[in-house]
Write a structure and sequence with these properties.
The complex is a heterodimer of chains A (426) and B (384).
Chain A lengths: L2 H10 L3 H20 L8 H9 L4 H11 L3 E5 L6 H6 L2 E5 L8 H7 L6 H11 L4 H5 L2 E5 L3 H13 L3 E4 L7 H22 L5 H24 L9 H10 L5 H20 L11 E6 L8 H7 L4 E6 L4 H4 L10 H13 L10 H13 L4 E7 L3 H16 L4 E6 L6 H16 L1
Parallel strand pairs in A: 1-2, 1-3, 3-4, 5-6, 5-7, 7-8
Chain B lengths: L15 H14 L4 E4 L6 H6 L3 E4 L8 H4 L9 H12 L3 H5 L2 E5 L3 H10 L5 E4 L10 H20 L5 H26 L7 H11 L4 H20 L11 E6 L8 H8 L3 E5 L19 H10 L10 H14 L3 E7 L3 H18 L3 E6 L6 H13 L2
Parallel strand pairs in B: 1-2, 1-3, 3-4, 5-6, 5-7, 7-8
Helix pairs in contact in B: 1-9, 7-12, 8-9, 8-10, 11-15, 13-14
Classes of the chains: A alpha/beta (426), B alpha/beta (384).
Chain lengths: 426, 384
């Protein structure tokens, strides 16, 4: 990394020493996990570059945007509508939360038995190593699970620009009305932040931009139906992760370019893994950068991941926002409709998710499902029970995993996953 | 304590669940339908106005937990595991006699647990707002109470008009006011009321109607007055006074109260849904909108499932002024994220605003941690 960035990081208030350490670990992990893969699509070079510059060039771009008068909004959850942010002339970025950091400091504020994702978000703040968080003009939290809802009360004491959005827990008319009220309040808050009113034109353009991004990911996902799978699960996950960081238009173009290449691969029956490699679907908690532990173990144990039923994956990207509206009001309604369909386990009951998992398993011709639960994440750990039952009924093998961000259980996980893959090969 | 005759000398002293069971059985024998509830947000005044009897369902024994863990994640709060275990093992008499169950979206664990038991008995889930001060919260919660009313009407074929509901609220206000007078005896220094007596009274006063309870409570108040006249009190006069806040505490979890006493302390204020919280607040009377008045009072319950829940700190301050504790102990049931995370704020408030020592304990229903709890409570008392 050049000296330029060091000055930039320093100005952002990062702890340079800790940040160097983080980048060192991240770089090595990326090399070991990503660059060691065989038969990668050439287009992945773009994501290699993005990752090498994830705290560098991308941050510089964001700061340039800020200098030009744009605002940066950071979020932790797929319920924060990017359409609204873009339409008000701001940029939405996902905030860091995929690795343990400054755990000792974190545990002074949060209980030890809080899920790794929440602890990680705090760790990046307390350790001063997340340039996205420090660049953000507004940080958006949301009342999803108990852990996050209560942790934001504490995070609010650490940052000056936290905005918390309430979310419904039940998908009734009341629930939808609550989401709508929250989205209108959020719209007002973002407009106030940027000083720009959202217009029908700006909202329409924003919806189209975000939909284009989703459509590119849909295209990528559909190509993974092929056997041999033209792209590894790790690489596809990376594209889903970068979805939250990159410039939307550039991301869309880059993913589409990879898809062009993958189409050829499918035609040529060329895969990231040999044909008839056991195919697995991952379902459950989100996997943020650099949380690549589970897919790495799976794909070095003789299986290929063909889909992610996750917020960093198809749960987050599957539905488009209707583009037919011509007024701000109708488009806002369309946005509410779109996000109200997200089948996060915080909803009760949540039968759509079970149906979606079954549908994905069929669509991507998965031989089995690995349910990924972060330790202490009660909504997903509890919902794993009906998920497993539903899959059992369809004779789809399911393995429930409960883990965190540490590598301590890597050996044990590998053993269990290898056994599961053996069982599938049967 | 042994020298003081029990406050409720009906043969059930110290066994509030057995007393309530007898109460339920008497109602059942009369043909009154019983509705199971789990939580302080269940609007019992509406249930009672409809001629139904609310039964608090079993959740405080460690016995059914191993059975629950064959299905549920082990990393779940013991209250939820116990509740679920009771149901799948069929060992909760209150559940057995309930014809329907009222549930709420309080915490993630409960919310998802209700999904797993929804097909066993008619289960009605009330969607509880999480941000009580938000504009939509009150109308939404009022609607949820109206929906519950519809559910109960349909399930039990019973109705209640506004007058009945208003009367039920007014009776509850009377009962709550009397309960507060009873708690005042715990506020005395030294305390003339034992925590187990607060439980004896409270566990019955919750499901019983205000009309049933008022004469009983008045009789108890006379007894308490006599106790004071006779100079009777619990523990040493200089025993450290403890306010216990946090998660609901009952059955096997009351080990924390016992540990506090064994260490020489006196539990003068059990602030929890199982303690004084259920009798706090007042329903607005003659508002012309009794369901609205009900919604308003219930939304003021400072449960940690609410955010940001500043009300818990305000209410704690009032309780500290009233009960004059020497220390505050925050009881967190293991894996209860809401109370666990909120404990940080509570601890800061207790220490900074009141200068009181504060101890957070994270417990389950087992006996394994009693020794360690005792050591920590003793250390807390040494700091006083």
């Amino acid at each position: 990394m050049s000296e330029d960035y060091r000055l930039m990081w320093k100005n952002l208030g990062l702890n340079l020493e800790a940040h160097d350490m983080l980048l060192g670990v991240l770089g090595n992990a990326y090399k070991d996990i990503y660059l060691s893969q065989k038969e990668r699509p050439e287009g992945m070079a773009y994501f290699d570059f993005v990752m090498s510059e994830v705290h560098g060039l991308r941050i510089k771009e964001l700061l340039d945007e800020k200098a030009a008068g744009r605002k940066i909004v950071g979020a932790y959850c797929v319920f924060v509508p990017e359409e609204i942010v873009l339409a008000a002339n701001a940029t939405l970025v996902g905030l860091c939360s995929g690795a343990d950091f400054a755990i000792e400091e974190v545990e002074k504020l949060l209980p030890r038995n809080t899920c790794a994702l929440i602890k990680s978000a705090f760790g990046f703040k307390l350790g001063k190593v997340c340039p996205y968080l420090e660049s953000a003009d507004m940080i958006v939290g949301e009342n999803t699970c108990d852990g996050k809802k209560k942790a934001y009360e504490t995070l609010g004491q650490l940052v000056s620009n936290l905005y918390v959005m309430d979310l419904p827990q039940v998908k009734t008319q009341n629930g939808r009305a609550l989401l709508k009220a929250e989205y209108f309040q959020f719209k007002a808050a973002v407009e106030k932040l940027t000083g720009k009113a959202i217009t029908a034109d700006s909202l329409k353009a924003a919806i189209q931009t975000v939909n284009a991004k989703r459509k590119a990911i849909h295209r990528l996902s559909a190509l993974r139906q092929a056997d041999p799978a033209p792209i590894s699960g790790l690489d596809a996950l990376l594209a889903n992760q970068v979805f939250f960081y990159d410039n939307p238009a550039r991301f869309t173009a880059s993913v589409n370019k990879i898809c062009d290449e993958l189409e050829k691969r499918v035609e040529e029956k060329k895969g990231a893994f040999p044909a008839r490699t056991p195919r697995l679907l991952i379902s459950g908690c989100p996997q943020a950068v650099p949380n690549w532990k589970l897919p790495f173990i799976i794909e070095t144990s003789g299986a290929v991941i063909v889909g992610e039923e996750s917020c960093v994956g198809e749960r987050g990207t599957r539905n488009l926002t209707a583009e037919t509206g011509n007024t701000v009001e109708t488009m806002m309604e369309a946005i509410v409709d779109r996000y109200f369909q997200v089948d996060c386990a915080i909803f009760t009951p949540n039968p759509d998710r079970l149906a979606h998992i079954e549908q994905m398993a069929a669509q991507y011709k998965a031989d089995g499902v690995i349910h990924y639960g972060l330790q202490f994440c009660q909504p997903y750990l509890m919902e794993a029970i009906p998920v497993e039952k539903a899959l059992e009924k369809k004779n789809i093998p399911c393995l429930r995993i409960e883990t965190d961000y540490s590598m301590e259980d890597a050996g044990q996980l590998k053993t269990r996953i290898e056994a599961f893959i053996e069982q599938i090969k049967g | 304590m042994l020298t003081i005759p029990p406050l409720m000398d009906d043969g059930f002293a110290g066994e509030p669940a057995k007393r309530v069971l007898q109460y339920m059985q008497a109602h059942k024998a009369k043909g009154d339908p019983i509705v199971g509830i789990y939580c302080g947000y269940a609007p019992i005044e509406l249930i009672q106005a409809m001629g139904l009897v609310p039964a608090v369902l079993c959740a405080f024994s460690k016995v059914p937990i191993p059975a629950a863990e064959t299905v549920l994640p082990a990393n779940l709060c013991p209250l939820i595991k116990s509740s679920f275990g009771f149901i799948i093992e069929g060992t909760c008499p209150f559940y057995a006699m309930s014809q329907a169950v009222i549930a709420e979206t309080t915490c993630d664990g409960k919310k998802k647990m209700f999904e797993l038991i929804a097909d066993i008995k008619p289960t009605h889930v009330m969607d509880l707002p999480q941000v009580p001060d938000q504009r939509e919260a009150l109308p939404n919660w009022k609607q949820m109470i109206l929906r519950l009313q519809e559910f109960l009407e349909k399930t039990f074929d019973r109705k209640a008009d506004e007058n009945k509901i208003e009367a039920s609220l007014q009776a509850a206000n009377r009962r709550n006011a009397l309960m507060q007078k009873i708690f005042d005896y715990a506020a005395l220094r030294p305390s003339a009321l034992h925590w187990s007596e607060m439980y004896d009274v409270g566990f019955l006063a919750l499901p019983a109607t205000g009309a049933e309870m008022a004469p009983r409570l008045e009789a108890l108040l006379e007894r308490l007055e006599k106790r004071v006249r006779d100079g009777l009190h619990f523990g040493r006069p200089d025993a450290p006074r403890v306010l216990v806040t946090g998660c609901p505490v009952g059955g096997d979890a009351t080990k924390i109260f016992k540990v506090i006493e064994a260490a020489g302390g006196a539990v003068v204020a059990p602030d929890a849904c199982t303690g004084m919280k259920a009798f706090a607040g007042t329903f607005q009377e003659n508002s012309g909108d009794p369901i609205g008045a009900m919604a308003e009072r219930y939304l003021k319950i400072p449960c940690a499932c609410m955010t940001p829940n500043e009300r818990r700190l305000t209410d704690l301050s009032i309780m500290i002024d009233r009960f004059k504790p020497d220390a505050v102990i925050d009881v967190v049931l293991q894996a209860c994220h809401a109370y666990n995370i909120e404990s940080h704020k509570v601890g800061r408030h207790v220490q900074e605003a009141h200068g009181l020592p504060f101890l957070k304990v994270e417990i389950d229903y087992s006996e394994g941690d009693i020794g360690q709890l005792r050591t920590r409570v003793e250390a807390l008392f040494e700091s006083i």
